[in-house]
Amino acid sequence: MFGCNTVVVIDGAFLKNSDGLSWNKANQVASGIPYGPQVDGRTKKSYNVSKYYVASPPVFRMGPDNKPEKNTIYDIGIVTPCEFDLTGDKPVQLVYMDYNILKPMYIEYLPVEFDATFDNTVDNLIPFRVECKDFPWLDSKKISGAKGASGIGYLTYTPSHKEQLFLPYYFENKQATDSVKKYLDCQVTILNDVLLYYEVAFKIDNALYTSINLNDFRDGTKKIQLSRRSRKD
């Protein structure tokens, strides 16, 4: 299920938007989520579904060309919880999305390349977790000076489409005209535990890593490249 700006999308191979979902409405239920023993239709391989990650896409103002406006400030959003395991005879999990918790941020995009190990023979969705230990929260009556947040995102390999990661930042004196940008400390980790066919890694200077810090790549001297290998049975 993906929710972004004014659109909620839930249709998929397992989950159908039969009852509809909408923003600003409490106690909505998404039924029919796959759980327990499954069989892959292509390989007939058995696997078990018990762990879930929930993505919270950023919200931002679009320009007339359907792209982010210059100096766009993004509401990153947060999901509680962003991951969970299901156990029990008939398990249920409550999930909350909130775009009024984290301070809005500017974003610097970092290009991502795919090496020759990628093709279109299988599902090419690559989930990852971003952890920013210094992400500031908005102050409220119950919260003051809080820092630290994590979220789930994904990349998709397609030969004709360029993918990007993004690094949040703000201006030290709160104005976009200031020269000093304060980048957040953001660590990105590939979520290989929910990939069925392959394991994916960041390929940096011919070395493989499952986790990288985005600040190491914002000056453009290093490339972010992804590589994958088949899982062994």
Shape: globular
Q: Strands of the largest sheet, in order across it?
A: 13-12-9-18-15-16
Terminus-to-terminus distance? 29 Å
Rg, alpha carbons? 19 Å
Order of helices and strands: EEEEEEEEEEEEEEEEEE
Strand content: 35-45%
Mean pLDDT: 84
Largest sheet: 6 strands, mixed
Helix content: under 10%
Secondary-structure blueprint of this entry?
Elements: E1 2-4, E2 7-9, E3 36-39, E4 46-49, E5 51-53, E6 78-80, E7 83-85, E8 96-98, E9 106-114, E10 125-136, E11 147-156, E12 163-171, E13 181-183, E14 186-190, E15 198-204, E16 207-209, E17 211-213, E18 224-230
Parallel strand pairs: 9-18
Antiparallel strand pairs: 1-2, 3-4, 5-7, 6-8, 9-12, 10-11, 10-14, 12-13, 14-17, 15-16, 15-18
Account of the protein in words:
The chain is an all-beta fold. Helix content is 0%, strand content 40%. It has strands at residues 2-4, 7-9, 36-39, 46-49, 51-53, 78-80, 83-85, 96-98, 106-114, 125-136, 147-156, 163-171, 181-183, 186-190, 198-204, 207-209, 211-213, 224-230. The strands form six sheets. The protein has a six-stranded mixed sheet, with no helix packed on it. A four-stranded antiparallel sheet has the order 11-10-14-17, with no helix packed on it. The protein starts with a strand and ends with a strand. 13% of the residues are buried.
